[in-house]
Design brief:
Blueprint (H helix, E strand, L loop, with lengths): L2 E4 L5 H17 L13 H9 L3 E5 L5 E9 L21 E8 L6 H10 L4 E6 L4 H9 L3 E7 L5 E8 L6
Parallel strand pairs: 4-5
Antiparallel strand pairs: 1-2, 2-3, 3-4, 5-7, 6-7
Length: 169
């Protein structure tokens, strides 16, 4: 059984190793530019931990096998969306960021989404256009492509949202 819990400062090395394995997987699958220049940095992860937004998955062997940030509330990078619109732009939402896994177990995105869905029925995430694994996984889990948002560094990302309420007509 895999347990999800808040990330701790003592997890930093394992989280960074997890992100490095995820970065290597991205490169092997044609995603050559996402998470460049050492992103996510240890400073970013420590900020997530301090803000109680960092989560990790620990498997039955006690190994950290997934790390992600889950942030409840408005995300400034989602204020402007191009080439589309949010399914529900007015309600509070949670955002999944910086999801990476070691590759030891399958279904990590599904596990992450299930965990976050228990806390809110309005989820958003974004990913690079070259991240085919994340794009397919998000769509398989009921996320709808809503448009394009831009990261703090100005790079575009495909934005997704999943809500449980009926869509507005």
């Amino acid at each position: 059984m895999i347990e999800i819990r808040e990330g701790r400062e003592t997890d930093l090395g394992a989280i960074m190793d997890c992100y490095e394995k995820a970065r290597q997987y991205m490169r092997l699958t044609g995603n050559m530019t996402q998470w460049a220049n050492g992103y996510p940095s240890s400073e970013t992860v420590l900020k997530d931990i301090a803000g109680r937004n960092s989560y990790v998955a620990i498997d039955e062997d006690g190994e950290l096998v997934m790390a992600f940030a889950f942030i409840k509330g408005a995300d400034p990078t989602y204020a402007l969306i191009e080439d589309g619109e949010w399914l529900d732009a007015d309600s509070l939402y949670g955002t999944i960021h910086r999801l990476g896994s070691t590759g030891k177990h399958r279904g990590m995105l599904s596990l992450c989404v299930r965990f976050c869905w228990e806390q809110t029925d309005n989820l958003r995430l974004d990913t690079h256009s070259d991240n085919q694994t994340m794009r397919r996984g998000a769509e398989k889990l009921g996320f709808v492509r809503c448009g394009t948002i831009y990261c703090d560094d100005g790079t575009p990302r495909i934005a997704y949202q999943r809500i449980s309420r009926p869509l507005k007509e």
